[in-house]
Design brief:
Layout lengths: L8 E5 L2 E5 L8 E5 L3 E5 L33 E4 L11 H7 L3 E4 L7 E6 L7 H20 L3 E6 L2 E6 L1 H14 L17 E6 L15 E4 L4
Parallel strand pairs: 7-8, 7-10, 10-11
Antiparallel strand pairs: 1-4, 2-3, 5-6, 8-9
Helix pairs in contact: 2-3
Length: 221
């Protein structure tokens, strides 16, 4: 059975009726299956390379090298997203009171922060474009190995990678709606590259623009 949903969100379903004339076309048998559940419909994921040409072939590219060879010991530093847990220096961690790792010069994890403006009031058409763009960004960069973080009003999905993390982001974006105020924590910690998606040029979130490498207006998508 196939179904098409025109809008993201949660759709609940109840019992199903199945009918069949097999093996004889003269008779038809119908049974009712008692099933209840729901379907989460994700935002539309689109091809966005034409919308972010400056992000393609730059520091965002999958083959960028940030450090030199990984054989030479360099220093001990604080644990960061994407670090191999096997490089944790437990004695140094105990002394510092936080996880410390041996930095061997291997490439640093590539980070992308997506900030989605969902502060009231919203233009529904523009906002749906913004949500779809955020989902497309997450899909695009997680597929090439980035650690992606999502910030919205009152919601924070920390840095993570892989398909399971993408689903966490899409779960949030499937249900996101407008909110009164921006209360998302860690706005001051713009670690990694940030893409700010604004609903309009008078949004109160314009103050975050200097911390981001790219600002996108939903009305232009």
């Amino acid at each position: 059975m196939e179904g098409t949903f025109k809008r993201r969100g949660v759709y609940r379903y109840g019992d199903f009726s199945l009918s069949s004339s097999f093996p004889f076309i003269l008779f038809q048998k119908k049974i009712r299956l008692r099933i209840a559940g729901e379907v989460i419909v994700y935002p539309e994921i689109k091809e966005i390379d034409d919308l972010i040409p400056e992000m393609i072939g730059s520091d965002y590219a999958p083959d960028v090298t940030r450090h030199g060879p990984g054989d030479e010991f360099m220093t001990i530093r604080e644990f960061r997203y994407g670090d191999n847990i096997r490089r944790v220096q437990w004695k140094a961690s105990a002394k510092a009171g936080k996880l410390m790792v041996k930095d061997t010069g291997i490439d640093e994890p590539r980070l992308l922060t997506i900030i989605l403006d969902n502060i009231k009031p919203l233009d529904k058409e523009s906002f749906e474009k913004a949500v779809s763009f955020a989902a497309s960004l997450a899909d695009r960069f997680i597929r090439i190995g980035f650690f992606v973080r999502l910030m919205t009003c009152k919601k924070l999905i920390p840095f993570g990678s892989g398909q399971e993390h993408l689903f966490k982001i899409l779960d949030v974006l499937a249900l996101i709606d407008e909110d009164d105020t921006w209360e998302c924590p860690l706005m001051h910690e713009m670690q990694g590259t940030g893409v700010l998606i604004l609903k309009s040029d008078d949004s109160s979130l314009r103050k975050a623009a200097p911390m981001c490498s790219m600002v996108v207006y939903a009305s232009d998508l």
